[in-house]
Here is the input.
Amino acid sequence: MSYQSIASGTVRRIPHPPTVRCTGADTPRTDRFATEPASTFDVLTETLRAVRLTGSVFMNARFTAPFGIITPDHFDSGTPLSHLRHVSVFHLIASGECTIEIETGERRRVSAGDILLMPFAAAHTFWSGNFEKLVLAPDVIQRGPIKGLLTIDHGGGGEVTRMVCGFLESREFLYAPVFRSLPPLLVYQTGDDRVSAAITATVREILSLTAASIPGSELMLGRLMELLFVEVVRRYASQLPTSASGWFAALNQPIVGRALQVVHHDPSRRWTVDDLAREVGTSRTVLTKRFGDLLGQAPIEYVTNWRMQLAAERLGNSSEPIAVIAADVGYESEAAFNRAFKRVTGLTPGAWRASS
Here is the structure.
């Protein structure tokens, strides 16, 4: 399936959406914050909300064969990616075809309609044909007419490959599982089913808005890039084999998936392994083994790390007093919260906030 060709253009980085206030703690208070049934709770959506997913389009590229180009780990300080704490990169192949190779040595031939997701912005190479030499992307990047706009027009004048590149910034804390559970390169090829149709429509809208580059479209583009990420990772999770491990596989496993659902639904509850096992209808032995097999950690370790993710998000994205955040996530004592936070992160809450 091909997408329409696009004209040069991109958009500026969009502002952060409003902070979502969440709760959780190791020593919770008696008040409860859960307001919806755990059976309807969407763990993936809630996790992405907590890591403050923010997307945008940053480059429109046109390559002509033969060409070879290296995208380094980071661009220079003048580009939109350099200041971000965690960046995932999307490449949307609008027309043509080329080969991508990532740091692990994995190579994939990609063509019009393919969606490439790199959860971490590691170095990678694109090429097509018998090029003379590889060039560094920063050496051929040009600024566009809009602030934050980057364009590339490079190659030997042959067959054209066009791609739109977007980024996803997240405030993912060390122990949050989303990005670390994805493969280093995920290539999504659309099909004829309903989910593929939705993804295709999202990509088409991104390409159309990028081509138009109308002032004010950056907000819509950012939201579409975020939506595209959610749709692609949902499809990735749904297609995992039963033998898979990791966080996305855990979402599909009946016992661990249900446990994650109730923990994310009510993180401030005074959870014990026995309580959690009862909630999901299994024994503590089976629950502990399933968590170890799929996630490599004990159930309560996961609970604690998730609570710290929620606290870290509040610390890094608000000016609220630490005592208020500690109380909101369930700690009756700021000192106890400080100790727990440092035990998990290696930093005090104040140091974490200063470094955010």
In short: The longest helix spans residues 218-238. The domain at 247-355 is CATH 1.10.10.60 (Arc Repressor Mutant, subunit A).
